Structures are given as C-alpha cells and as structure tokens.
Fold this sequence. Notes:
By secondary structure, this protein is an alpha/beta fold. The protein has 9 helices and 10 strands. The strands form 2 sheets. It has a 6-stranded mixed sheet with strand order 6-7-8-3-9-10, sandwiched between helices. It has a 4-stranded antiparallel sheet with strand order 2-1-4-5, covered by helices on one side. α4 (110-123) packs across α5 (139-151). It is globular and about 50 Å long. The mean pLDDT is 95. Residues 40-41, 161 line the site of magnesium ion.
Amino acid sequence: MIRIKNLTKSFGELQVLKDISMEIGKSEVVVLIGASGSGKSTLLRCLNFLEIADSGEIQIEGEKIHPQKNNLNHVRQEVGMVFQHFNLFPHMSVLENVMEAPVHVRKVNKSAARQKAIELLIKVGLADKANVYPEQLSGGQKQRVAIARALAMEPKVMLFDEPTSALDPELVGEVLQVMKELAKEGMTMVVVTHEMGFAREVADRVVMLADGVIVEEGHPTDIFTSPKHERTQRFLKQIV
Ligand code: ADP
Ligand code: MG
C-alpha cells in the first residue's frame, strides 16, 4: 500500500528523518514507537504530505508521489490523519464536521454526504451527538468524531498521531475500541501510540524510531518480550 524509500527530512540544521525506508502492506497495522523527538510525527506528516521530505520517495499503491506534480489534496484524501488534539471545527456541529470535506473537497452532494456522515457517527457510537457542537463533547467523543471525519473521505490508509495522549485515562478505551474495529475491518493503519496493550493486541508490526532512524522492527510479541536494540530496551523500560 505504501512504500517509503530513503526518506530524509531536516528542519534547519536538525536532521529529523535519516534515510527511512519501510513498506506498509494492505490491511497492515503498524505501530510506531520511540522517544519524544525521535521523528514519529514528522514521518506521519511526510506520509500525508503535510511536510515535504527533502529526499527519498513515497509510493502509494505503486504510484510515486511527486509533491511538485501530483495534486496533494488528492493524495491527502487517500491518507486520512487523526491528531492528538482532534482539530475539529469548533463552529460546526458534529455532523457538519464529518460532512465538510466530502462536500467541499470531494464535491459529494449534500444528502449523500449527510447519509454517509450519519453512518459513520453510528459506527463510532455518536449518532445521538450529530447536532451538538464540539465544545459539548468529552475528549474521547471529540476524537471519535475526528476519526469519523477522516473516514468520511474514504481513505486507503489511516494515520494516527498519539490519538489518545490528550485524553483522561478513562476515555482512552473508547477511542482504542473504534481503532480496533477499524483494524478488524481491514483498514491499513500507521499508529503512533504509547498504548502498548493496543500494540500487542492489534499491531502486525512494531517499528522503533530513535533519532530519525528505524533501529528495530518486528512482531509486537518479539519487540516487547525480547527487544534487541539497546534503545528499544531503554524506551520500553521508561514507558511501562
Ligand atoms: P516525535 O513525534 O517523535 O516526538 P517530531 O517528529 O515531532 O518527534 O520531532 C522531531 C524533531 O523535529 C524534534 O526535535 C522537533 O523539535 C523537530 N521539529 C518537528 N517539527 C518541526 C518544525 N516544524 N520546525 C522545526 N523543528 C521541528
Ligand atoms: Mg509526535
């Protein structure tokens, strides 16, 4: 589904991604771990072309994406993203949030977009909140709306950047549950998270990033029970 080849990205003097190569198969769930500042968000943002890598290439379904030539809005439709801080439109109802991109970017007609949005709100368990505004929702509910909003564009891949890190502990489970169901349905997902229970249960592969380099990757059972790289060992000790 996605092939990343020799990706590099610097901010000024700081090289944040150093020659990253990886492949993500269709329906695969990859959990990306690593200390703060290791480049996890930058990698996700490059996959969604919110950041343009300095060198290397990204292929989506075999097609190399050229930031200069390809229509990046089109690419972003295929790669949905969910952020730590939800980023809902505060002046729009929940339903309007979910309908916004299909109507204004994809030019789907309003009644079809509304129908689809309602289905997605049912899927994330928020059909009864369709007409309320984001400020009336809990963090967990906001994040579930953000997931529904991303899904409304019918992406081929979903990227999650610490989707539960801003939530009170008792709200984490409801968001992870929605993500688990998505994985079960076969969605291709790249998830940055510190929720190791989720990674054990759902990930096909865990990838450990340290200082912009993939230092280790493998099946969650192997990574968590017998991490080989010293950086992975140290990181896992810190977070549990
Ligand atoms: P992570 O998500 O793993 O915590 P990030 O990808 O957010 O790491 O950041 C990696 C490094 O790049 C950090 O040192 C961060 O300060 C720096 N960085 C990220 N985005 C920018 C930016 N837009 N401008 C300058 N530095 C940035
Ligand atoms: Mg980050």
